[in-house]
Structure formats: C-alpha cells, structure tokens
C-alpha cells in the first residue's frame, strides 16, 4: 500500500510561483511512474506532467516552459515547480503514482491564481 500526501498549494497572484510537494510512504520505490494531475472547478481531472523511473518527463502543452516536474527517490518525494502562473492554472492538484496495475492518488492541494 502507498500513501501520497500533497502540500504547497495556496493563493498566488498571476505571474507568481508555487512549488508543490508530494510525500510518498508505504511500499513505494523508484520503479513507480509518478505524475501530477489537476482538476479545475467544474471540470475533469487532467494530466499536467509525468516523470518515469529514469526521470524522463512529459508535459502537457499548456504548462510547457512554465512547470517543472522532478523527483527525489531517496526521499520518496515528487515535486512540481510552477512559474508564471495564470488564472487558468487554478485547480486542485493531485499526486499520482502507478506501477503496472497499482495506482495511487493523493488527496489533492488547492492552487488558486488570482489578483
């Protein structure tokens, strides 16, 4: 069993930055692929960025050049550095870990971008 706990969300002005963290505990290893998803108000949950076991990354077009996903396997941690934030980035951000048929989600952290 794996537990994921996100932190680092909050209210930020447009153009600002936030760094989200996801602490993983339980039976997790560096073999897991990890990702950040987000769910804006009234919309579906969508992928933001993904990082695999060898730290190859993928970003959706809307965040390329602004967000950076990273992981620290020694700390069982996942991060999302978000720069140049826009109001449309407002959402609940979720940490996700998966390996074969095992899938785990965190409880989410709210990010609000507003002046």
List keywords for this structure.
globular; 115 residues; single chain
Describe the structure.
- This protein has 115 residues and is an all-beta fold.
- The protein has no helices and eleven strands.
- Strands 2, 4, 5, 6, 9, 10 and 11 form a seven-stranded mixed beta sheet that branches.
- The radius of gyration is 13 Å and the shape is globular.
Shape: globular
- The proportion of residues in beta strands is over 45%
What is the helix tally?
A: 0
- SSE order: EEEEEEEEEEE
What is the percent of helical residues? under 10%
Radius of gyration: 13 Å
Structure class: mainly beta
Round the mean pLDDT to the nearest integer and report it.
96
> Strand tally, please?
11
Low-confidence segments, given as residue ranges, are: none
Largest sheet: 7 strands, mixed
Distance between the termini: 40 Å
Question: Summarize this, please?
Answer:
The protein is 0% helix and 56% strand.
Topology:
Layout: E1 2-7, E2 10-12, E3 18-26, E4 33-39, E5 46-51, E6 57-59, E7 67-72, E8 77-82, E9 91-99, E10 102-105, E11 109-113
Parallel strand pairs: 2-11
Antiparallel strand pairs: 1-3, 3-8, 4-5, 4-9, 5-6, 7-8, 9-10, 9-11
């Amino acid at each position: 069993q794996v537990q994921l706990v996100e932190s680092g969300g909050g209210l930020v002005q447009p153009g600002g930055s936030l760094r989200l963290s996801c602490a993983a505990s339980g039976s997790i290893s560096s073999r897991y692929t990890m990702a950040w998803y987000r769910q804006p108000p009234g919309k579906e949950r969508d992928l933001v960025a993904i990082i695999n076991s060898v730290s190859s990354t993928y970003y959706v077009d809307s965040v390329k050049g602004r967000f950076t996903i990273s992981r620290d396997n020694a700390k069982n941690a996942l991060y999302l550095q978000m720069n140049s934030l826009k109001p449309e980035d407002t959402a609940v951000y979720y940490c996700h870990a998966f390996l074969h048929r095992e899938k785990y989600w965190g409880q989410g952290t709210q990010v609000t971008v507003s002046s």
